[in-house]
Structure formats: C-alpha cells, structure tokens
Specification:
This protein is mostly beta strands. The chain is built from 9 helices and 43 strands. It has a 6-stranded mixed β-sheet with strand order 2-1-35-34-31-30, with no helix packed on it. Strands 4, 36, 37, 38, 39 and 40 form a 6-stranded antiparallel β-sheet that branches. A 5-stranded antiparallel β-sheet has the order 3-9-8-5-41, with no helix packed on it. The chain starts with 12 loop residues before the first strand and ends in a 7-residue tail after the last helix.
C-alpha cells in the first residue's frame, strides 16, 4: 500500500456567508441590499478530513467510505420549522434539493422575455451571455428516463447595459424530432435501465451485444459554448449548431465546431503569440482490439484519444490522435505543452453485461465498475512537435476524478494538476443527486497533484475536505499559473454526514503552495441551491486575476410565486473580489430551470431580444394562434406557451422520485461503456 501525500489545509482562513433574503413579488427592483445580512466569519481550525485508502484491494468495502466530523466549514443555521426530528441527517434539505430535478413539459415550455425582477443592480459594465445546458424533459407517455437521459434544454441570460434577457429552448436532435412526431421514446439510452424498444431482450442480446450496434439516443444535453462565431450544444460526443440569436437548432455539421465528434468538456488557452484557442477532445474505445505495450504484453482494449484545437475564428487548426490502453476519462487539462487526462481505475463488469443488462435491470453505464487491481494514472500527451509518445504517471492516491480545476507547468517543468477527487466510483454521482443521508452524500475533496516529469510520478496533496465539484477558474488563466478557483460546495455536517451541494465557494492558493490561504463559502439561502459557477472577467488591462464577477443559477425550492410546483430559478452575480459580501444582483428568471449539467459564459452578447426576422415570425405565430397561446410582443415581449393549468396537471412528484440520474456532465462515456468486448 502506497503512502498518502495528503496534507490538511489547517492553516487556511475560512468564512461562510448566508443570504436570507427572498423576493417579495414580481416587478420589484433594486431594493436594499440584504445579501450579507447574515455574514459570519470564522478562522479555519485544524480539519479532520475524510481519507481515502491508498491503492486498496477493495476500496468499496473499506472504511474510507465513512466520514468523520470536520470543523472545515460551520453548519448552515436553518429555520425553526426545520428543527423537527429527521429520519436521516439533512432530510428536509435533501428533499428541497431534489425538487430541482423535476421534468418540464417539452417544447410547450420554451419561453423568452426581459428579466423584470432584479434585487440589487446588474453591473453596467457587464456584457455577455450566460449559457446553460442540461436535461430538462425525461418523461413521455408515462415512460420516465433517468435524469442524464433527458432531452437537453439550453438556457441563456443575455446581459447588457444593466438589463437581462432570458431564453430557454430545447436542442432538437434527430432523435428528439422523431420522438416529437411519434409522441413516445424510441431509442434506448445510456443511463436508463428500461428499454423502450420492442422485444428489448432480443434487441439487447442480438443487436447490442452480439451485433455490436448499440447506437443510443443523442439528447444534446451536456454543454453549450459560443466560440469563433459558432454556438454549439453537445452531449457525450455529438455537437449541434444553434442559432446565436434565437437558440433554435441548426444541426450537426453546420460549422467546424459542430462537424467533429467531441465531448462536453473544453478548455480555452492562450498561445505564445497572444491568440486564443479552444481545445476539445474525445476518447474512442475499441474493446475488440488489444493495445500492444512496449514490453510486448497486451492490454484489453485500445483507446484512441483525439484532441482538436480551434482558433478564434472557429477554424480547426490542429488535430492530434494518440492510441493507448483502454480507459475511462472524463475531463482534460491543457498546459502550454501537454494535454493531460486522468485515467480512472475501472473495468467492464462482464457478468452484469450478460445478466442484468439483458433483463433491463441495469443500464449501459452500470456495466463499468471499480478496478481495484491498479492505480489511477495520469496520461500525458505532447501538444506540439513531432513527439507522439504517451507518457504515464501513476498517482500515489487511490481515487477517481471527473471534473478538473486547472493545470500548469511550474518552474521545475513539472505539471501541477488540480481536481475534485472522489473515493468511490459512481457514474451516476449518487452522492450528489440521490443522497439518502446514510450511504450516499457528498464526500468529494479538493486535491492538488504534482506530476514529476523526470520520474513520471504524481504526488497528492489535500487542499480541502469540504465536498466540492463543478470547478471553474478565469478562462484567461487556463493552462497557466493561477491563484483563484470557484466551486459548488456542500453545506454543513451532521452525525458524520455532509449536507447537499448548495453553496458557492472561492478557494485561493499560491501557485507554488499546497495549502489554501483562503476559503470563502457563500450560501444562497434556506431552500436555495447554487448550480455550476462561471467567472466573468472585467474588461481592461493589467487587472488582477479575480477582477470580475462569479455568476451562477440558483434553484429555489420554495418560491411563493411559482407556477411550477413551488420551484423557481434565480441568477446571481457576485463581485469576485468581494466574495464575502454576496451578490450585487439577484435576477428572478421567468421560468423554473432544472439543475442542468454544464455551460459557459460568452463574452459576446448573443440570444438577446428578438431581431426583425424573429419578430416577424412571432407576429405570424400570434396570428395563427387563434388566441389560444398567450403571446406578447414588444419591449416586454414574453412568449409564454405553457399555461399554469398545464403545469399544475403534471405529476411532478412521480418524475422527481424517478430520476436517480446524475447532475454532472459526462465525457467520453458512450465509447467507454458502449463498445464492450465485441464492438467496433
């Protein structure tokens, strides 16, 4: 068993901030700033953190899966109505949290309009568009799919001149279009055990496993990015071009960024000449062809990692392909000279493949499991030159890592790799999305690895034991030395159980250090849960790294004026330099938006109010609606195509209880679990 290099961030300064304000009605603007009314600062004491066992034989059954008390962050004080005896820790908080997974009705739910409820003030100098994508509809005719298999819905909030314009629109993939015509699900999906195809047992045996044809539904649901004149939504490998004015789906292959196959994870980097590039990648696993190692031995299956680079005009300017032993990877880090992947120790569960999968007791993603016989590895790929050697650096810390913070090459030529680590493998991320207060609850940690590029060894350092995920930094510092990161974090700990993912946290450390010097957590309020954050840099030269704003959507589980079962959604804007003061503005969106997966901030103002062409089409729609669809055009145009009565008739409780999918984004998954043993 290898020794841990973990260190506690015991000297870190920590603070927690609670916002107890709420909206009191529609149309009210710029009321007094009460965001910091419950601010409390504490100095972080020695933290007793959760340790994962290093390269164990059976990590799932080890004691590392249980947690211990930590003084990392004080518990959030709840209201008196929540003091009743709980069946399990944070029972009420988790029930509130899970309301953010309610499915919406589909195309009838699409909406747009000016945001009229603003508390505080939107910074006048902020210009651009917040883009979010995620599964939003997971039920048709009583067939309920898992969350990640839901149809993607892109949400945008365009900000300019102190005003904001909202849109939400479904990504109309070929499969979605066919399902809309037929009114039912047709294809099987990655995360749902039940199969809508007729004679499912035969389909899974002869078509999927023996025939090797396991094409799954494309749902366009995992990310959205605006780059080089192209706006694209993407699921696990297929991007779809969208109209940047209206969010309408144009289709796959309509621009360079939508013409390749890549995952939902990107990095933007600055080149030595000052130009910018977007880096995308995909892992294609072929389990029928074994990888031949340098020593002559063979490894089951071969992965082909393909990295794409697009310039500022959206043109593909580089493509590099590397074969290496089959693996599961989720995200990437890009430095000046390398692409770096974290190879999680997993394997195919062949027994489950030919039993539970055939009988619809397991979905495709459940056919991979922990591989306790090997260590996690860093796969290092050259970005430049003629060298195509893939180098491997084993980690001294047994864990999984899905979403990475950032990475860079230090003065010694070693690679610093920051990420959120998990001590158990679960593609469904049930610790986050389906917690029960016993076995499943957030327990991720913030970690730094330093990869020795001479010895090709990776040493682990624990930065924080506060459960964290969905990290972001300033995109201007991707692949470079940086100091600040922003994450979604858990709140509170009771009886050894961590609370749900609820807060936003700013963590800071010096580039050559392995300890945080500050850790600031902001809680949006009781019954409210922050989603993935994004950093918006302030315009100008010679600015500090954290000179800008952190923006995020926030789920409100108990919105009094809701037309969707008490659910609502806010957008918050926080001055990153004054994180402890909370939001400078909270925007109440016109519609409830499910949690979603990933997104981005576009510095270009897109998806704003309707232009002439769209206005003409909306006018035509109004004429043909016969008054059945409430449509309002003009300065405050809101196209409301779902009535309150229709929403109330939805069986939302059943949908919420039936998910059990995952909040977080997926990368390279289809090829990983979709080509098992016999496939192309």
């Amino acid at each position: 068993m290898m020794q841990s290099a973990s260190t506690s961030s015991h000297s870190t300064k920590s603070s927690i901030f609670c916002a107890g304000s709420s909206f009191e009605g529609k149309g009210k603007k710029s009321r007094r700033n009460v965001f910091a009314a419950r601010t409390k600062k504490t100095r972080r004491q020695s933290a007793v953190h959760i340790e994962a066992i290093q390269t164990p034989k059976k990590p799932s059954s080890s004691s590392s899966s249980s947690s211990v008390e930590s003084s990392s962050v004080p518990a959030h004080k709840r209201g008196e109505e929540d003091d009743a005896k709980e069946a399990y820790p944070f029972e009420k908080e988790y029930k509130d949290y899970q309301t953010g997974y309610a499915s919406v009705p589909g195309l009838a739910y699409e909406n747009q309009g000016w945001v009229t409820e603003v508390e505080g003030e939107i910074p006048n100098e902020m210009e651009g568009t917040l883009l979010r994508n995620g599964p939003a509809m997971y039920e048709r005719e009583g067939f309920i799919k898992s969350y990640l298999d839901g149809d993607g819905m892109v949400t945008s909030v365009a900000v300019k001149d102190g005003k904001a314009y909202f849109r939400n629109k479904f990504v109309v993939t070929e499969d979605f279009d066919e399902e809309e015509r037929t009114g039912k699900y047709i294809k099987s999906s990655i995360f749902t055990a039940e199969d809508p195809r007729p004679f499912a047992f035969g389909q899974r045996l002869f078509k999927d496993l023996l025939g090797g044809d396991i094409s799954k539904k494309q749902n366009g649901a995992y990310n959205v990015i605006n780059w080089g004149g192209s706006l694209c939504a993407v699921d696990y490998k297929k991007p779809y071009a969208l109209n940047p004015d209206t969010l309408e789906t144009i289709g796959h292959g309509n621009c360079p960024l939508s013409s390749t196959t890549h995952t939902s994870h990107y990095r933007t980097v600055t080149e030595p000449d000052g130009s910018r590039r977007l880096v995308a990648f995909i892992n294609e696993v072929n389990w029928r062809v074994n990888h031949k190692n340098e020593d002559g031995s063979e490894h089951l299956g071969t992965t082909n990692a393909v990295f794409y680079e697009f310039d500022e005009d959206g043109k593909e300017v580089a493509r590099r392909s590397y074969p290496y032993p089959s693996s599961y990877v989720h995200d990437l880090i890009v430095t000046e000279n390398y692409y770096v992947l974290f190879d999680c120790p997993i394997k195919i569960d062949f027994k489950k493949t030919f039993t539970d999968y055939l009988t619809q007791n397991a979905c495709l993603s459940e056919l991979i499991c922990e591989d306790t016989e090997r260590q996690p590895l860093f796969r290092i790929f050259p970005r430049r030159g003629t060298d195509m050697t893939v180098r491997t650096a084993p980690a001294d810390y047994w864990c999984y890592a899905y979403h990475h913070v950032n990475g860079f090459e230090n003065d010694d030529g070693d690679i610093v790799f920051d990420t959120c680590t998990w001590d158990k493998f679960t593609l469904y991320f049930t610790d986050i999305t389906n917690p029960n207060g016993k076995d499943n609850f957030p327990r991720m940690k913030l970690s730094r690895f330093i990869i020795d590029m001479k010895k090709y060894e990776a040493k682990h350092y624990l930065l924080s034991d506060v459960p964290c995920e969905l990290p972001i930094t300033s995109w201007d510092y991707t692949g470079e030395k940086y100091e600040h990161m922003y994450l979604s974090t858990s709140v509170g700990r009771k009886d050894g159980v961590n609370g749900p993912m609820q807060a936003l946290t700013k963590c800071s450390l010096k580039t050559d250090e392995t300890k945080l010097y500050t850790e600031e957590q902001w809680i949006p309020g009781e019954h409210k849960f922050a989603m993935e954050p994004f950093f918006v840099p302030r315009s100008g030269k010679d600015l500090d790294e954290d000179d800008g704003w952190v923006v995020a959507l926030v789920h409100d589980a108990r919105y009094e004026d809701s037309d969707f079962g008490g659910r609502g959604t806010e957008m918050v804007i926080i001055d990153a330099k004054k994180f402890s003061e909370g939001p400078v503005a909270r925007l109440r969106l016109p519609k409830y938006v499910p949690y979603g997966v990933h997104g981005s901030w576009s510095p270009e103002y897109i998806a704003g109010p309707p232009k002439a062409d769209e206005l003409a089409r909306l006018e035509e729609l109004r004429k043909n609606s016969d008054g059945k669809v409430p449509i309002s055009l003009g300065h405050k145009d809101i196209i409301q195509t779902t009535s309150k009565k229709e929403v109330e008739e939805l069986d939302l409780r059943k949908v919420g209880a039936g998910i059990g999918g995952a909040l977080l984004g997926i990368t390279a998954l289809s090829e990983m679990v979709g080509q098992m043993g016999f496939f192309q």
